[in-house]
Amino acid sequence: MTDIICGGLFGDEGKGVTTDYYASKYNDSLVIRYNSSAQASHTVTTPDGRRHAFSHFGSGSFNNSKTYLSKYFSSHPMLFFKEKEILNKLGVNPIVYADSKGIISVPYDVLINQILEQSRGNNRHGSCGIGFNETVERNLIDEFSIKIEHLPYKDHLIYVLEKIRKEYVPKRMEALGIIEHYEPNKNMFDSDNILYNFMGDLLDYKKSIIIDEESTSIVKSTENIIFEGAQGLLLDENSKYFPHVTRSSTGLKNVVDIANTFGIDELNVNYIARCYITKHGNGPMPFECEKPYENIVDLTNIPNDWQGSLRFAPFNFDLLNEAISNDLKHKENYKGTITTNLVVTCLDQVDENIRVILNDSEIVMEKHNFIILLKEKYSNLILSYGPTRETIVLTT
User: Fold this and answer.
1) What topology does CATH give the domain 2-100+215-273+319-349+367-394?
2) In Å, what is the CA distance from 212 to each residue of 70, 155, 190?
3) pTM of the model
């Protein structure tokens, strides 16, 4: 079986609990991170009370699932080790595979990202501040690129890191129009401690992952495959909400490419949405409102300096239908068959009367009628009434 976990809207929909649910159904699962980087924050709460917001690792890890970092995932060694330490304390020591063509974030990507976002003031794009866009941009230039396949070559890594901080950084900051911030931060760019501490991270990272040269061996030998996406369809790099988006394909585009490569001939796509909409960061949000229900609890998306506070809107049928329809156009490039499910989460957090956007107007309906309407519009419907996999219900 191959399941796809894909956020349907602006992210924060429940991809963690859904991945954990599918991983729990099999003894042998591999979670493929098919886009983005460690800015993901996919919360899983186990039935025995353990809780973790997965970032660099697959959200099936509590079920002993292996993690596969695809060529579309940007490794972030600094954050990898922070998360690994937390997971080890929770009794989890995931096995991690990585495609040799995957790119790697370096400290200078993070510094440029944060300086740029701070310079925008009230016009911030909503970046997470970990340098993902800068990582992608830098790796478009071969002489400054650092990938998984380079990890065995220490001298090469030091050579490229030196070129990045001395040549690439000032050129990139000039291109971004923030060169005036270079001199005030030059001590960080020139710091040998930062460079050589990161070199240590790279060498440790090589020891902590299994580099997959052929990109097919582990997939073919695993019983259950789960593609775990990050962010949501409306944050796709080609979304109409640009520039308040991520620098990756959040939907089926990457999945189809990887599945064709691996010879996977059937995909079960799960589009995830809360029964109200959330968004972290700046940018348009149709029908935005104050927190719509008193019982909403979100321990993961707390206010932070980079994305501010969590924002809210009523469940929007129009927006979700548009996002899913646009994403399913990628079926044309797939060699196999695709089935789709809608997973609606957080039903325990809403009132008996639910606010809904339908045909560009807001209406209020009873929760029972809301579920009936969901069933009418989406034949394969999965409902979640709490934070753990035990609260997920398959409808018929």
Assistant:
1) Adenylosuccinate Synthetase; Chain A, domain 1 (3.40.440)
2) 10, 22, 34
3) 0.94
